Amino acid sequence: MALLSIFPTNLMRLCCVPSLGTLFILITCIQIFGTYIFLKGFLLTRTTFEERGHSRTPWDRFPLSAPSSHQLPIIHPGPPFRRAILVVIDALRFDFATSHDNNDRHYLNKLPVIQHLMDKHSQSSLLYQFRADPPTTTMQRIKGLMTGSLPTFIDAGSNFASSAVQEDHLLHHIKNRYKSIYFMGDDTWVRLYPEVFDSQRTFESDSFKMLDLDSVDNDILSHLWPVVEDKENDWNLTIAHFLGVDHCGHTHGPSHPNMARKLSQMNDVIKRLLSQVDKDTLLVVMGDHGMSPEGDHGGESLEELMSTLFIHSQRPLVQPDAYYQQLSTRIHDARSKRLGYDLQSISERLDYDASRYPVVAQIHLVPTLAYLLQVPIPFGNLGAILPDVLVPEEIMDNKIRSLIYMIGQFRTNALQVYDYLTYYSQTTQQLDFSPELLEPIVQKIYTADGLLHDLASQSLFIESVSNSSDLSADQLEGFQAQLEHILLCYDAFLTSTLQYCESIWAHFDAGSMMLGILLLGLGLCLSVWLMISVYQAKFSPALLLIPLFTVSAAAMLYSPLFEKMTTADWIGVLLLTSVGIVLWSVFGQCVLLFDKTLVLLIGLIQSLTLGSNSYVVWEDNGTHYILSTLVIIWIIQQGSRASALTELIRSVQAPLLFLIVVRLSSMVGQCREEQFPYCQYTPDVLSFDGQLQTFFSVAFIIVVSGLVVYLSVFLKHKLSDKVLVRRVYELSCTVVILRIGQDMYQNTHEASRIIPKVVSQWIDVYLPRLVYILCLFCTLYVLYRKSYISSQKSWSILFIWSATLAMLQRPLSSLIILGSTWAISLLDGDPSNLLLRLTILQYYGHHLFFATGHQATFTSLPWKAAFVGFDQMNYYGGMVLVTLSTFAGYLISWLGWPILSQTLSKNEARQPLYLLMLMQTIPTFMCAIFVFVLRRHLMTWKIFAPRFLFQTLLNIGAHMAAILLERRL
Q: Which residues are paired to 183 by β-bridges?
C-alpha cells in the first residue's frame, strides 16, 4: 500500500474508474475472447498432407503381418479408357433422374435418357444414389469428389472464398497421364485446382449469379460441342459443370416450370454426348449434392444429400454373369448397413423405391475413376472402389480367378487407405488415431490377408486359379465362399475406416473449450451483477497488480495439456480474468426485484432448452410460447392496477393487440428438415396463377400498401415537421412493394407474365442501391442533426431501417418487418414495468427471426438477399446483406430499445442496456456447456454446433448494439 500512496488519488480515479460504456466494452471483450478460445478448441480442421499417392500391385507386402513367399497371380484389368467426359449437373437430386408413374411435379421424368440407357444397355450403364457428405456446399463437394477425403465442419465457412487444394487429388494424377484436359463451367474448380487447368483449355464462369439460369450453361455448350465433336482434337478429359438446375432451385424452388426446362436441356445434352461415346470413352454424369424442398442446399437433409451418379460407355462395365451382380449387391448392402443409410426414410422423403438402386458415398467415385483410368489413388482417399466395375482384361468362366481379381483390386484400395491411416497416426500423434484405438480397424485387413495367405498356401487352391474344372462342386463352392468372405473383410476394413473417421474426425481440445467456458461464465457473472446491483464507480488498487499477476500466472499455467493454447492466448485469458475480478469492486449493494427475478428465470429456462436437440429443433414454437407467456404477465400487471372497467380496457388494450400480432406472425416461417411432417406454416409464395391466387396476391399488395400509408401517417405524428425521413421511408416502402410484385410475377407459371429485363434490372439492382444510399445518408443525417430530439432520432432510425430490412425479405416476411414498428409502439409506456417490456422486446426480436423464415441451420440462410442490389456476386456486400436479412428481427428489436427507454432520464436510460447483453450472454454460456458435454453426441454437428455458432454471432451482435446505444442515449 505504501507504493500506492505515491500516486495522487485524483489521478488514480481518473485513470481507473470505468464508465458504464467502458464496462460494456470490457465485458464485450471478455465475451469475444472467451468465444474465440472455445471455438479454437471446438472447430478444428483435419490435418492434410502434401504426400502423393503411387501405383501399387495387388500383392504388395502380402500379407501385411509378415510378408511371405506365397504369392497369387496378378490378373490385369481391361485397358484404361482413353477419354472421359465428366458432366456435373449441380444439385441433381436423385429423384430428378429416375422414372415416375406420375408427372405432378415439374422435376419428374425430365431425364428419360438415363432410364432408357439403363433399360437397353444394362451391361454398360450404371446408376447409383450418390450420397454426399455434409455440409452440402459446392466447394466441399468438389474437394471430396477429387480427393476422396471427408469435409470438416469449419470448412463450410470458406465456400465463398475457395483456396487451392494442397493435398493429393485425382486431377493431379490424371494430368500426369492425360495431358489434354478441358474444363467449362463453375469457376470453383479453377480456384481449387489452378495447377491442373491450362488457360487455353479452360472456360470458367462465375458460379454466384444465382438469378441467371442460362448464361453459364449456354457458355458451357458454346465451348463443349466444338471440343468433343472435333475429330482432330485429341482431348482426354472434359469436365463440364452446369449450374442452371442449381440456380433454378435457389430462385424458384424444385417444382417450377423453369426446372422442367433446365432438366430437359440437360437431357438433350446427355443425348448429344452419347454420339461421342465409344469403347474408349467413359461418360460420367453426376450431381455434387441434392436440393432441399425450398431449392437450397448446405445442410444435411436427405433431399440435400441424395444426388445422382450415372456411368456409361460402349464397353461393358459389369460382368455379365448374374453371380457377380448379386455379389456386388451384397457388398453395397453391407456398406449401407455399416454406414447407416436408411433406405426406408429415403423412399418416404423422396418418393421412390430406394432399394432399387445402390447407395454409394461420393468419395467412392475417387478410387473407382482411378481404377477405370488406371491412375494412382490419391494419398488421402477414404473411398472404397465400386465392385460393379471390376471387369478383368478377359471375362472368364473361372469364378475363382475372377474373385481373386476383385480381391486384388480391393486390396490395392485397402493398402492405400492403410498407408494413409498409418501415416496420419504417426504424423499427428492424435489420441483418436493412436495405434491402440486403430487396432480393431486395422485387424480387419490383417484378418483378410491372413485368410487369403492360408488359401494361397494350399496347392489345390493355387491349381484351381488356373483351372477350376478339376474341382468338385463342393470344393469349388467352398473356395468361392472363402474368397467372398475375404472380399467382404477387405471391404469391412474400408468402410470401417470411413465410419471411424466420420465419427471422430474433429479433434477437440478440451482444455481450450473449458477455458472458453470459464471466460464466458465470468462475463455472465459480471452482466448479472451489473443488473441486480446499484452502480457505484470507485477506485480499486488491485487494478495496478494486473500486469504482474498476468505475466507470472501465464508463466506458471502454460502447459502442453492445453495443446492449442499459445502464450498470447494465455496472456489474453489471464488479463481479461484479472479485469473481470477487479470490475467486481465497482458494484454496490444488491437490489433484487420481481421483474429482475422474472427476467433471470425466463432467460435461464430458455437457455436450458438448448441442451435438448428436440427443443432446439422446435425452438420457433418454444419462443412463441415464452413470448406469449411474458405478454400475458404484462396483461396481468396492467389489469391489476386498474380501478375501473374503462381503465382496465384502456390498460390492457396495448398488450392484447401485441399478443394478436405475435399470434398472427407465428403463422409464418420456415420448417426445419427435422420438423416434417408435423410443421405447417403459411406458404410465403404468392403468384398470379388462377383467379384465387391472383385475388390473394392483389389483396396482399393492397394490405401492404395500406399498412405503409398508415405507418407514414404514424411517423408524421411522431416527427411533426421532419419531412425528409418520411419521404425516404415512403420511397423505400415503394421499392419493397415493387419487389413483392416482381416476386409474385416470377412465381407465376405463365410465360407471358415475364417482366421486361430493363424493368427487372431496375427493381433488382438500381432501386435497392438507391435505398441503401438513402438509408445510410438519413441515419447519419438524423444522428448528427441537432434539430432532432432523442425520441425523434429513435423513431426515424427505426422506420428507415425497417423499410431497408423488409426489402431483403420474402413477401410475408416483408409485411411482418414493416408492421413490427407499430408493434414496438404498443410496448411503449410508463417506466413502472420497463424491464418486463424490454424482455418482451428482446424475445420479440427472437420471434421475428423465425417468423421471417429463418432457422439456426445453414440451409435456411437467405442467399437470395446477397443479390438485392447486385447483378452478380459481391463477396463482402453479399455477406453484409445476408447478415442483415438473417438478423433483421434482432436489429428491429435493438433499434426499439431507446424508444422504450425514452421515458427515463439520460442516465437512467443507459442502465437497462445491461439486459440487452444479459439475455444473450446466458444462452451463450449454457450453449457452450452443452456443446462441450455433447461434443460426441450424434446430433452435435447437425443441430447443436450450428445453434451455438448462431448464438455466438447473436451474443457479439447484442454486445456491440449495447455499446453503440449507450453512446447515443
A: 202, 239
Give the whole-angstrom CA distance, residue 39 versus residue 939: 18
Q: Distance between CA 241 and CA 295 in Å, rounded? A: 18
3-state secondary structure 676-698: CCCCCCECCCCCCCHHHHHHHHH
DSSP of 393-445: SS--S-HHHHHHHHHHHHHHHHHHHHHHHHHHHHHH--GGG-HHHHHHHHHHH
Question: Pick from 614, 597, 373, 410: which is nearest to 495 by CA?
Answer: 410
Q: Check pLDDT > 60 for residue 6.
A: no
**Crossing angle of the two packed helices 435-456 and 399-428, in degrees rounded to 10:** 160
φ and ψ of 185, to 5 deg? 115, -140
Phi (first) and psi of residue 169, to 5 degrees: -150, 165
Phi, psi of 285 (to 5 degrees): -115, 125
Determine the Cα angle at 275 with ends 271 and 276, to 5°. Answer: 115
Burial class (CB in 10 A: 0-12, 13-18, 19+), 448: buried
- Report pLDDT for 12: 43
Question: What is the CA 901 to chain-centroid distance, rounded?
Answer: 38
Q: How far apart are the C-alpha atoms of 749 and 255, rounded to whole Å?
A: 11
Q: Which domains are present in the chain?
A: 83-391 (3.40.720.10), 392-506 (no CATH), 594-903 (no CATH)
**What is the rounded (10 degree) CA torsion for 640, 642, 648, 654?**
-70
DSSP letter (8 states) at residue 871: S
pLDDT tens string 237-286: 999 999 999 989 888 889 888 899 999 999 999 999 999 999 999 999 99
First to last CA, the chain: 39
Give every CB contact of residue 618 below 8 A, 6+ residues apart in sequence: 675
> 532 with 591: CB under 8 angstroms?
yes
Q: Which residues pair with 530 in a beta bridge?
A: none
Biggest alpha carbon–alpha carbon distance for the chain: 108
Residues 6+ apart with CB under 8 A from 767: 735, 738
Closest-CA residue to 892 (of 833, 814, 834): 814
Residue among 413, 426, 418, 425 nearest 386 (CA): 413
> 120 burial class (0-12, 13-18, 19+ CB within 10 angstroms)?
exposed
Query: 293: which 3 cell numbers?
Result: 424442398
**Which pLDDT does position 536 carry in this prediction?**
45
- DSSP H helix total and E strand total for the chain: 39, 10
What three-state secondary structure class fits 500?
helix
Render 110-143 in DSSP notation, one character per residue.
--HHHHHHHHH-TTSEEEEEEEPPSS--HHHHHH
Beta partners for 237?
A: 84, 181
User: Across residues 625-631, what is the average pLDDT?
Assistant: 94
- Cβ 581 vs Cβ 541: under 8 Å: no
Residue 124's alpha-carbon distances to 270, 272, 391, in angstroms, are: 15, 18, 11
Query: Residue 575: its pLDDT value, please?
Result: 57
C-alpha distances (whole Å) from 628 to each of 490, 620, 622, 698 are 58, 12, 10, 31
DSSP secondary structure string, 770-804?
Answer: HHHHHHHHHHHHHHH-TTS-HHHHHHHHHHHHHHH
Question: DSSP alpha helices (H): ranges in 852-912?
Answer: 875-886, 888-895, 897-900, 906-910
Task: Report residue 234 as a C-alpha cell.
Answer: 485429341
% of the chain surpassing 90 pLDDT: 48
8-state DSSP, 45: P
pLDDT over threshold 70, residue 513: yes
The continuous run of DSSP H or E covering 183 comes out as strand 181-186
What strands, in cross-sheet order, belong to the sheet with 306-312?
202-205, 181-186, 237-242, 83-89, 281-286, 306-312, 125-131, 359-361
CA distance 75 to 681: 60
* Helix ranges restricted to H, 154-241: 170-177, 188-192, 215-228
